[in-house]
Amino acid sequence: MKHFLDVLDWSTPELWDILELAVHLKREWRSGGNKPIMQGKVLGMVFQKPSLRTRVSFEMAAIHLGGSAIMLGPQEIGLGKRESIPDVSRVLSSYVQMIMARVFDHNHVLQLAEHSRVPVINGLSDEQHPCQAMADVLTMYEHFGSLKGLKLAYIGDGNNVAISLVHVAMRYGFDISIASPEGYELDPAFLDRARQAGITVEGHTEPELAMVNADVIYTDTWVSMGQEQEVAEREATFSKYQVNTNLLSHANAHAMVLHCLPAHRGQEITDEVADGKQSLIFQQAENRLHAQKAIMVKLLSD
């Protein structure tokens, strides 16, 4: 039995299968609806954090595929507090056919998977956001028709989103550059391991340098959940990392913009860019639905 916790747990051929399956399922849905592959099956959704896209996209994905989903918030479970994580996993996996967890501590989703009798999906942790990264790749693939030769520039905090973007770059073979302030960069050793996978990986502190020859510009919030006490410090530190029309001019003329949302408009991205002709942000948000359908179908088929 396989889980979907980290993109690197899956081989390149397996991930291409998921990507092509997502394309197929999206086309099938728009042509009249998906086949009821999940009929009689239930997805248990464990949340430690509030959510719009993760909750609704997973719940609707299960419904589109003929199944259903149950949402369990912090008040129902309290992972590791009200009840141990292994006990939660053993009990929940005896009721449902698949588990998705959106947690703070990455170790919590690893423990859920270790003790589960059904597949576990990492809906987000402090170290990884693999489902988001798969939706991002789907969006790039749809728009450009190929991933070969593309360069993605990530501007902002070296966080879980940045890590998963590097991981999908390693598997799908596109290049990536990352611009973060000093103290907020990804670990250089991590970037070296990515380079050993055969892709070009750049690390910068100046966002303009990361943008050179970029086909995709990606940004994320400067202040993630759990970092609220750092708002003033982060806003000052990241002020020159805003994706605006001036910064966008340093990329290729055909470059498109991605953001995993929620967007703090006027901070990491301006309205002009988010709503402009180079934005794929809302296609990207919809693609969470279709990428996650493909992940669930793949896990069930395995």
Task: Examine the coordinates and then state which fold CATH places here, giving the name of the CATH topology of the largest domain.
Answer: Rossmann fold
Report the average pLDDT across residues. 96
Known CATH architecture of the largest domain: 3-Layer(aba) Sandwich
The secondary-structure class comes to alpha/beta
Number of domains: 2
Task: Describe the main β-sheet briefly.
Answer: 5 strands, parallel
Task: Tell me the fraction of residues in β-strands, as a range.
Answer: 5-15%
Biggest sheet strand line-up = 7-6-5-8-9
Order of helices and strands: HEHEHEHEHEHEHEHEHHEHH
DSSP, total strands: 9
- Any idea what the radius of gyration is? 19 Å
Percent in helix: 40-55%
Which ranges are low-confidence, i.e. pLDDT below 50, for 5 or more consecutive residues? none
Distance between the termini: 7 Å
Count of helices?
Answer: 12
The CATH superfamily of the largest domain bears the name Aspartate/ornithine carbamoyltransferase
Quick one: CATH class of the largest domain?
Alpha Beta
Shape: globular
